[in-house]
Specification:
Two copies of one chain form a homodimer. Chain A is α/β, with parallel strands linked by helices and 400 residues long. The first copy, chain A, folds into three domains: 68 residues, Arc Repressor Mutant, subunit A (Orthogonal Bundle), CATH 1.10.10.10; 158 residues, ATPase, nucleotide binding domain (Nucleotidyltransferase, domain 5, 2-Layer Sandwich); 144 residues, 2-Layer Sandwich (Nucleotidyltransferase, domain 5). Chain A is built from twelve helices and 15 strands. In chain A, helix 1 crosses helix 2. At the A-B interface, helix 1 and helix 8 of A face helix 1 and helix 8 of B. The structure holds a DNA duplex (30 and 30 nucleotides).
DNA sequence: GGTTTTATTTTCATCGAGCAATCAAATCTA
DNA sequence: TAGATTTGATTGCTCGATGAAAATAAAACC
């Protein structure tokens, strides 16, 4: 509690710059509520630390001396957001400014044993990130399982059992030259949609991932809720059916196929449930699904009072035509029902959210104020078209 | 961002004192990480503001000069925690130090119209708080309904419909000489149990209130979650039964009676469901209840990953003998199931929690650091015996 | 009564912020 | 083209607040 006023101003100026990038000293002084003199001195320090730099002045339309624009140094580094799925692994390399630089979608070699899987993953990350003339500063990894915070243990990952326990993460950390944070894939997907997707401008939001399994995530005030034992959002465990059947047996791709089999109906894919003119027996099955979906939607709604619930995962695309009806149904169950939206980043919500998280960890390490992190990165736009375009980009672009 | 270092030290010293009450200057300096010289000056300022005061020195067992103990001034004020229930209204007057001073339990005159109800409530609060030689600084009011934050509107209060809308709160505020905060009764009940009851030492906790209605509340990191529209915790809305029947129709006192009536069973009270040797038809009804209870317990568990789930409300006492079995059942549904506990403050969880909230608002207004509030008040013990003893105390005790 | 120990206050050097003057670099105007 | 004007950035200066250390205070010990 000593002379931290200087440190405090450093943080304030840096944070303001991250929020209003790029900005002149004058603008920083106004926005941060600090005198111009102090900003000059603080900026000098930050430049000395090789953190920020003066950039091109904008062609001014005003009279008077042109403001010198400042920005985070472009060669500070890059981050990697990784979504390690049971079948596909998706990676988004992000520039320190927040821009996605490269995107990859690979088949996860799920049959490999643990050391080989770690080798493969570390190799892929290093390979993709080495094409840029800036160091890799942070990796964020989404996994199809829960993370127990105190011991950094991954549990409950039936679709990729090798990674359960603590060894996978520990070994991956040894194989990578920078910090690695890890979280549940749904949590990162929600973070991605919060920043660039369907839940932008909804600080309170939830995500329901309807795929082969059921995942969900909750966010309040722009912050994704994360319990210490990774239990948050596991609504699939709700014992709602007769005999304690779980919700995940009703509203997942796997569950639908199983229910169909039990009922003696031949379904090729879970999406067949949503054909426009279903046979009566399929309609019954579908009604069962929809009942479960309503439970799931209600559950996430009363958990964090979201403005928006984002639906993602393979099944979500199949039920898109029914969305308006579901919205109405939910309104019947719930006063003040949240808005239902499909994920706009498609299968890349998770990887993009991981990139966002990695960036936030970077900014925090650089000294940004923690309370501003949920609003960072700012001034960047990411959408599916941009990601698609980057899939084919060779990572040979020198940054800066 | 100017010379706020002084203000910052003031907050730090005050917060440390609240956390380590009472404390000497030396102790404050060590605990807050501030130099002794600065603490001396800051304490001088706080004494000048009539906020803190020197108290009796402790009889020292050490050599050397005795440390002068400092404490919040006892005559700073009192707060009122009010739990306005549909049938009973409970009030706990709390000293600024956190000690409960007076406790009342009154029948709510639920048949009064709005102005008369407000008059009655304001009168009761003023009457009870006027017996102490210290001003009433803050009132916290728990209501059997939801609070929509932006407009301060109470909604969803079927058992006390007069208070719905914005007028009740607005008029009550006009009738009381100090700030009034309002929240859902379950939220305050959880806050009470978090501080003094079954969830003490569980920063992540949830509460399930099983009474005539179903209420619940969630807390993470010692902070009760509160959505902007008061939807958090309304798990009663879960449409889990056939034909969209809601969870609240299964696990509430009212629901049980209705189900029994539908089944043609005569029940005098919901508690009859839990007799030790039930008739087969009652056992079936009970099983239905327990299925609903499991859904509710699972739902709160996966919403905030609690270490403890507190059961409160009239029904919770009836099912106490079955608690161990429910704990086991829950463990079967859920890996890492939370601990189930009965509320230890009985019917006063809500009023005590409201008192806690009122105190926290006081401390915040005095300048305590927001991040310390979830740990305040400290060093006070409240239990049902103490509350019971205070029910009969006449409020004529001059404070200080 | 002197010594030792511990708490608090005072003294004093230093640090860092803001104000205001100054410098810098534009556009505007005759 | 040479001021005048406007706006941004820097610098000199003062002042307030902190912390280290010295001084003082108040106890126990011997």
């Amino acid at each position: 509690m000593v002379q931290d006023t200087r440190e405090l101003n450093r943080s304030a100026v840096l944070t303001t710059l991250l929020l209003e990038r790029p900005a002149s000293r004058k603008k920083l002084a106004t926005a941060a509520g600090i005198s111009a003199a102090t900003v000059t001195r603080t900026v000098e320090q930050l430049i000395g630390e090789d953190l920020i730099t003066e950039t091109q002045e904008i062609v001014s339309e005003q009279r008077g001396r042109r403001a010198v624009q400042l920005d985070l140094r472009a060669d500070l580094g890059i981050v990697a957001g990784v979504d390690l799925g049971a079948s596909k692994t998706r990676i988004v390399i992000g520039h320190i400014h927040g821009t996605p630089l490269a995107v990859r979608e690979l088949a996860t070699p799920g049959t490999l044993d643990l050391p080989a899987l770690i080798d493969w993953l570390a190799g892929v990350i290093l390979d993709l990130s080495s094409g840029f003339a800036a160091p890799l500063r942070q990796v964020a990894l989404g996994v199809p399982g829960s993370l127990e915070i105190p011991e950094q243990r991954i549990s409950h990952a039936p679709n990729l059992p090798q990674i359960e326990g603590t060894e996978f993460l520990a070994a991956l950390r040894r194989s990578l030259p920078c910090p690695v944070v890890c979280d549940n894939d749904a949590n990162f997907a929600l973070l991605g949609e919060l920043h660039f997707g369907a839940a932008a401008h909804s600080p309170n939001a939830a995500l329901l991932s309807l795929g082969f399994g059921l995942g969900s995530a909750l966010a309040m005030d722009g912050r994704v809720l994360r319990g210490t034992r990774g239990l948050v959002g596991e609504f699939g465990q709700l014992p709602i059916g007769p005999m304690g059947a779980r919700l995940e047996h009703l509203v997942t791709g796997g569950g639908i196929l199983r229910q169909a089999e039990l009922a003696g109906i031949a379904l090729e894919s879970p999406a067949d449930l949503f054909v426009s003119d279903p046979a009566p027996r399929i309609a019954a099955l579908r009604q069962q699904f929809e009942q479960g979906l309503m439970v799931a939607l209600t559950a996430v709604s009363v958990s964090c009072d979201p403005d928006t619930v984002v639906l993602s995962g393979g099944l979500s695309r199949a039920l898109a035509p029914e969305l308006a009806r579901y919205q109405e149904l939910l309104g019947g169950h719930l006063r003040l029902a949240p808005r239902l939206e499909l994920a706009t980043l498609d299968d890349f919500s998770g990887a993009v959210g991981a990139m966002v998280s990695a960036l936030q960890h970077c900014y925090r390490d650089l000294g940004a104020l923690p309370e501003a992190l949920p609003r960072l990165p700012r001034g960047v736009h990411v959408d599916r078209a941009r990601l698609a375009a980057l899939k084919s980009v060779e990572p040979v672009v020198p940054v800066g």
